[in-house]
Specification:
- By secondary structure, this protein is of the alpha+beta class.
- The protein is built from 24 helices and eleven strands.
- Strand 8 and strand 9 form a beta hairpin.
């Protein structure tokens, strides 16, 4: 592989005009496609194989024309202090609002609060339910404006009015912190390279890659039903890995220049060595993201595949466009050690010319300390991550609803008003679907189900069965006495389903529980069930990949165990902030609650892929030194001397990019941004920079042990570039042939 990538790097360097033209053309094509694509609709949220989804599908079949997937709105009214909603003036205002809401072209139905008994017992709060023919993301702006105008007129009449539901659903915003994250990355790159030109290359290529990826997602969003969160996730991961992959190749290029090689030769060797690490690091991320398909939740699968596509683009750009841009930059990209006068590079160069030995860098000093005190460093790292992981033992899972929205939103205020007037469970009603098609007495079956549910604990109200025209299916609405995300509500769902099994045995009627609350419960259960198979699949495939890369059994095993430590610590931090409320004000978390259901499995996938990035980049340098004859402990120090500074810069950049998404208005994006940022911190600085060298120092030569039969069976991918060294030795006629002065 190293030889192929070496040739690719030299080709891209020589044919830079052609390479740059191709990528600019792809960016333009993707941009035109995104601009001309129809607006994305609401991404379908289905969970095949669950009872909630089966009931939802049955409703669409047996109750045609009811727009089961249409948007909904609850317009909640509260009377002024000392008044009631049943007072003549307030009643007239509500009826006028209902009449205005009914006139919309996309409105399917509006339920009058007074006819539907939607007035609280104390008479102070009422609500009108509005159903639309299309989903929330497909509603025309004029329809949303009409909804808000009707509510405002009722406010002007003296009532408190808030709007819940998904009719006013908005595209999540990431906020200005995303730009701050990129700015931090730029500063780190300038400090690392000591050159604005060299620092600009990773940023430029990452932005081009993300532009192509996100534009392609936008162009396909309508056809593939991709939600807005999909493009945000692709942008988040694409920026982080795009900058990092380019950073490693540019760093290796500068190191090759420092050894006196020509610029074209340096570009080829950089792509052949660091580029090989980029390919395998990118493969681990792609495996982890595509592997999300095993969960069998279409939305999660689409998110993973879209993000994986963006990572693949980042790898291709790093391998081709970076050497092309290095060709354009010429002498403006300096060899390693030659920095700008602003950063003290000139003084360091003069000291070296005077014959004084160069001072060991921070990576060398740290690695030397670790190999002298491996046990202490290992224990400190493991115990520290273990302490950070303790909150994960209290992990509660759920999906966000209006109760998790900021208190400044009308959706959250509507949620609170409904809880005040009708009880905590009113915001999460359960819909029970009774399929009596195979029953001899459907009406009796409907009544039996209703009576059985009324006798269960935790039930506040049960509506009479509402049969369809054929009379073979009915819906029953159940109001719990607990909030939607509570354990009590989950227990009630299971109790209804258990009772339905007995009723089916007696009457032949099947009872199914659905609704958003039941859907969330089923999603959480499905994700929990899929976590272990997913972990085995992703870690197993990556473990095999790393065996090929490192030609070792213990190094990949150590990498996988270190990942488990970092991901558990990161989950503990997420629980502490988003569930317990620690530092919630600093993170902009206005409402604590259960952690998003897909967070654990998502973090396992993404963090594992990113963790392997640093493992590959750092340990391949150690492996390279070891196979070239250095002793194990010295190889560790050598790996840190060449790679620690760059890995540190890459980790800081990735943390800055992920942290930039904490400012998002979408709670899911905010949580993912924080979780990935803290996971990178734990994995890069505790696991890879402390635990890994300590373990390698303790293992010594055993770290690189591989059974001979397996060594013969594995393909030789030559990540260390040994083939390049051998080929160079074969071509050389003069011992100093490939140590000629650098030239453009």
């Amino acid at each position: 592989m190293a030889t192929f990538l070496y040739k690719l790097g030299r080709l891209a360097f020589r044919r830079r005009h052609f390479v740059a033209l191709i990528w600019v053309a792809l960016l333009t094509l993707a941009g035109v496609g995104a601009a001309s694509a129809p607006p994305a609709g609401n991404s379908s949220f289905s969970i095949p194989g669950t009872e909630a989804q089966k009931a939802f599908d049955l409703l669409e079949q047996r109750f045609p024309g009811q727009s089961a997937d249409g948007a909904t709105a609850r317009v909640v009214f509260k009377a002024p202090a000392g008044e009631k909603m049943t007072d003549a003036g307030n009643k007239a205002t509500v009826e006028k609002t209902v009449h205005e809401l009914s006139d919309g072209s996309e409105v399917a139905s509006v339920a009058d609060p007074y006819q539907g008994k939607a007035v609280s017992k104390d008479g102070t709060i009422a609500y009108a339910s509005v159903r639309y023919d299309v989903s929330g993301m497909e509603l025309e702006e004029s329809t949303k404006d009409a909804l808000e105008d009707a509510a405002q007129q009722a406010r002007d009449a003296g009532l408190t009015v808030e709007i819940g539901g998904d009719a006013l659903q908005a595209v999540p915003e990431t906020g200005a912190t995303e730009v701050i994250g990129i700015a931090v990355a730029a500063v780190v790159l300038v400090i690392t390279f000591g050159s604005l030109v060299a620092a600009g290359l990773p940023l430029l290529t990452a932005l081009i890659g993300v532009g192509i990826g996100v534009s392609t997602i936008t162009a396909l969003a309508s056809a593939l039903e991709l939600g807005s969160t999909t493009s945000i996730l692709a942008m988040m991961i694409g920026l982080a890995v795009g900058i990092d992959y380019a950073l490693f190749i540019v760093s290796r290029y500068r190191a090759e220049l420092a050894e006196g090689r020509e610029r074209e030769e340096a570009a080829g060797r950089a792509v052949g060595t660091a580029g090989s690490a980029v390919v395998f690091a990118g493969l681990t991320v792609v495996i982890a993201l595509v592997g999300l398909a095993v969960v069998n939740i279409p939305m999660l699968t689409k998110m993973g595949v879209a993000a994986a596509g963006t990572v693949a683009i980042a790898v291709l750009i790093a391998l081709t466009m970076i050497p092309a841009l290095l060709g354009y930059a010429g002498r403006r990209v300096k060899p390693a050690g030659e920095k700008s006068k602003l950063l003290g590079g000139a003084r360091a160069a003069r000291r070296n010319e005077a014959g004084k030995p160069a001072k060991a860098n921070m990576g060398t000093r740290w690695a030397s300390f670790v190999v002298r005190r491996p046990v202490a460093v290992l224990l400190l790292g493991v115990l520290g991550l273990g302490a950070a992981a303790i909150p994960a033992t209290s992990l509660e899972l759920g999906l966000p609803d209006d109760g998790s929205q900021p208190t400044s939103t009308t959706q959250r205020r509507a949620y609170d008003l409904l809880s005040e007037g009708f009880g905590a469970g009113f915001n999460g009603p359960l819909m029970v679907v009774v399929d009596a098609k195979d029953s001899d007495a459907p009406k009796d079956a409907f009544t039996d189900v209703s009576d059985e549910i009324k006798g269960l604990d935790g039930v506040v109200a049960v509506t009479p069965p509402a049969p369809n025209k054929a009379g073979d299916t009915a819906t029953i609405t159940v109001i719990p006495d607990s909030k939607p995300s509570s354990v009590q509500t989950e227990d009630l769902v299971h109790a209804i389903r258990d009772a339905g099994g007995d009723i089916e045995a007696d009457t032949g009627a099947q009872t199914l529980v659905t609704g958003s609350t039941a859907m969330n419960i089923d999603v959480s259960q499905k994700l929990n069930d899929a976590l272990l198979p997913y972990l085995v699949l992703v870690v197993g495939l990556a473990f095999l990949l790393l065996i090929v890369v490192f030609r070792s059994i213990l190094v990949p095993l150590k990498a996988a165990l270190g990942f488990l430590l970092s991901v558990m610590a990161a989950l503990g931090a997420v629980v502490a902030v988003f569930q317990w409320g620690w530092l919630s004000g600093l993170m902009g978390v206005e409402e604590t609650g259960p952690v998003m259901s897909m967070m654990p499995i998502f973090m396992v996938g993404v963090v594992f892929g990113l963790a392997m990035d640093y493992e590959v980049f750092l340990v391949t340098r150690m492996r390279e030194a070891y196979v070239h004859g250095e002793k194990p402990n010295q190889a560790v120090v050598t790996g840190f001397r060449h790679g620690a500074r760059v890995v540190t810069a890459a980790a800081v950049i990735m943390m800055a990019v992920f942290a930039g998404f904490i400012g998002s208005s979408e709670s899911m994006v905010k949580m993912i941004g924080f979780g990935l940022a803290i996971a990178v911190f734990f994995d890069a600085f505790v696991v890879r920079m402390a635990i890994v060298p300590a373990v390698l120092a303790l293992l010594g030569k055993k770290a690189w042990w591989l059974p001979k039969w397996l060594d013969r069976a594995l393909p030789n991918v030559d990540v260390e570039g040994e083939g390049l060294r051998t080929a160079a030795d074969g071509r050389r006629t003069d011992p100093d042939e490939d140590r000629v002065p650098a030239r453009t």
